[in-house]
Design brief:
Blueprint (H helix, E strand, L loop, with lengths): L5 E9 L3 H13 L4 E4 L16 E2 L8 H11 L6 H9 L1 H12 L33 E2 L5 H15 L3 E4 L2 E8 L12 E8 L5 E11 L20 H8 L4 E2 L4 E8 L12 H4 L3 E7 L2 E4 L13 H15 L4 E4 L5 H7 L1 H9 L9 E10 L2 E3 L11 E3 L4 E2 L11 H27 L20 H17 L6 H24 L4 H22 L25 E2 L6
Parallel strand pairs: 1-2, 1-8, 2-5, 8-16, 15-17
Antiparallel strand pairs: 3-4, 6-7, 7-8, 9-15, 9-18, 10-14, 11-12, 11-13, 13-14
Helix pairs in contact: 1-5, 1-11, 2-3, 6-14, 9-10, 12-13, 12-14, 13-14
Length: about 550
């Protein structure tokens, strides 16, 4: 049976987080043609909406691009691409103006938090987070991602050239090389996309395709990521022979709420920026600070340091969680500054103005991804990657807090300009052959869906145990053996049965797991987010050296 529907758009965007929506809007501003956004759930089902902290950007005369860059490079553990990082940082203020003046995004001002000085009431309230030496985080209370996502969705819905396809999950990219038409001067022609409601795989053809599927936190057992964060963009990029860089650097956020009634709820790093301190309960009703034993910045140390410190304390003491103490702040301040966090904790019987918050580390952000330049260009003509799906070199071996949302509004704009400048040549280079429709061959409907759920659970468990915050060579070898066996099972299942969204996600998660494992095995040092107990800290000879994987051509 074959797919019967081909749809053509000038520009295809896969994903509807901040990077995807920014891509759609900037393409509408700079380029001609119709634009499609495909997203596997509702348009606001994404990691971006969950972002609490904010956008790191130089907006104060007491701050500078050089200082923001220095903090970024320091957090990135000598692995950032300094030129790319500077370009993204310096483009920040103009994109903030775009959000506030054109898109209608609201950021919290000093007056909203009680500053009565007339000359400062309308200034942005700039927060500070771990790794930053200055206050430079624009935020909207503690729901920044939700506010930016809201404003971008509203703007997209107003643009008649942007067409939104919800409940559509991309299965694979369509490239000249993957169709057996040669590996030289490869071109992306679009993507095969499963309409989840109808079960039909549609052909979305386009001159340009932008992958903006976000992160892959669901590869781990404990994560603050949305349930949609399965790494589809990176997995599809790898299968399409794009270069994948630095997947060993996976950031574990130090402070997820630890409570049996709530999963995946993040306690923002901004609380530590407001003086919150991390403590352990070594004795009943007695909370003791410990971060001074691990880093000179104490509770404001970079995330990799804090996550490893908490992990070490939990393993050393056998305690189930650490605690974040905000009791030095008034309840009135905490309600204003962190309304959602205060409300969520209060609902669980934790008044954070009186009681420390129980926290544990959890998988949060992938610093690796499809390797691109600052315009999101992958090296495959017509194919771009933006947001967490991409690896621009901004984050290096460890992302500086709130630089990720900066990247989601800067790189899509640079990508749109890159596309604008090359669109005519992309159109002329597009091959004339007809894209073959998706075929299911002799596939049947499966009555063994337990295979999917079992493999999914097994991957997440061994990734957490063997490829988590602290790794060893033996753990990585165990993980590699397991993922090879699971991959062979999935491959057989994939070709024998009709695809479903669950199978597509499992296939992607398995690919992501293998990419993380292989990358971790290739890096023979401990650096940033990749901590291997069998190797010493940072080999200077590897400064600036990325771990790059590329699927070998089969012909």
């Amino acid at each position: 049976m074959a797919s019967t529907q081909e749809i053509f758009f000038d520009h295809l965007i896969i994903g509807s987080g901040l990077a995807g929506l920014s891509s759609a809007l900037t393409l509408a501003e700079k380029c001609t043609g119709e634009i499609a956004i495909v997203t596997k759930g509702n348009i606001d089902d994404c990691n971006s909406k969950l972002a609490q902290g904010g956008i790191a950007c130089v907006m104060d005369s007491a701050d500078s691009f050089d200082e923001h860059l220095a903090d970024t490079l320091n957090a990135g553990a000598h692995l950032c691409n300094e030129e790319n990082a500077r370009r993204i940082i310096e483009a920040g203020p103009e994109r903030i103006r775009w959000l506030t003046q054109k898109i209608g995004t609201h950021f919290t001002t000093r007056g909203e938090l009680g500053d009565t000085q007339e000359s400062r009431r309308d200034e942005f309230d700039l927060a500070r987070e771990g790794g930053h030496l200055k206050r430079r985080i624009l935020h909207s209370g503690d729901i920044t991602g939700e506010e930016v996502e809201r404003s971008l969705i509203a703007a997209c819905r107003k643009e008649p050239r942007i067409h939104i396809f919800e409940n559509h999950i991309a299965v694979d990219l369509i490239t000249k090389a993957r169709l057996g038409r040669g590996i030289d001067n490869d071109i992306c022609l679009g993507a095969y996309v499963l309409d989840i409601n109808s079960g039909m795989v549609k052909t979305f053809a386009a001159y340009t395709t932008s992958i903006a599927t976000g992160g892959c936190g669901k590869v781990y057992l404990c994560t603050c990521n949305s349930d949609v964060a399965c790494g589809g963009g990176v997995a599809m990029g790898y299968r399409a022979y794009a270069r994948i860089a630095n997947m060993e650097f996976f950031q574990f956020h130090p402070t997820l709420l630890y409570h049996p009634k709530v999963k995946n709820f993040l306690i923002s790093e901004a609380l530590r920026g407001e003086g919150g301190t991390l403590k352990m309960q070594y004795r009943k009703n007695e909370y003791t600070e410990f971060m001074q034993n691990y880093h000179e910045m104490k509770s404001l140390a970079p995330r990799d340091v804090v996550a490893r410190a908490i992990d070490s304390e939990l393993k050393r003491t056998g305690q189930p969680c650490a605690y974040l103490d905000m009791t030095h702040k008034s309840e009135a301040f905490l309600r204003r500054r962190f309304p959602r966090i205060f409300a969520q904790c209060n609902e669980l019987g934790i008044n954070i103005a009186r009681t420390p918050i129980p926290v544990v580390p959890g998988a949060h952000f992938s610093c690796g991804g499809v390797q691109t330049d600052t315009a999101g260009y992958t090296g495959i003509q017509g194919l771009y990657a933006v947001g967490e799906t991409a690896c621009t070199g901004l984050h290096g071996a460890n992302r500086l807090a709130s630089n990720s949302l900066l990247e989601t509004i800067v790189v899509p704009n640079l990508a749109a300009q890159h596309i604008h400048d090359r669109l005519e040549s992309i159109r002329k280079a597009r091959p004339l052959f007809v894209i073959p429709p998706w075929t299911t061959g002799n596939a049947t409907d499966s009555d063994e869906l337990v295979v999917i759920s079992h493999n999914w659970d097994e991957i997440r468990r061994f990734m957490w145990d063997y490829v988590g915050i602290v790794r060893t060579n033996k753990r990585l070898e165990r993980a590699k053996r397991r993922i090879k066996n699971i991959q062979s099972e999935i491959e057989k299942y994939y070709w024998d049965f009709h695809i479903t969204s669950d199978l597509v996600e499992l296939r992607n998660i398995a690919t992501i797991a293998e990419l993380i494992i292989d990358s971790a095995m290739l890096r023979h040092e401990s650096r940033g987010l990749h901590y291997n107990a069998d190797y010493p800290e940072r080999d200077p000879a590897l400064d600036g050296v990325d771990t790059v994987l590329q699927k070998p051509y089969l012909y």
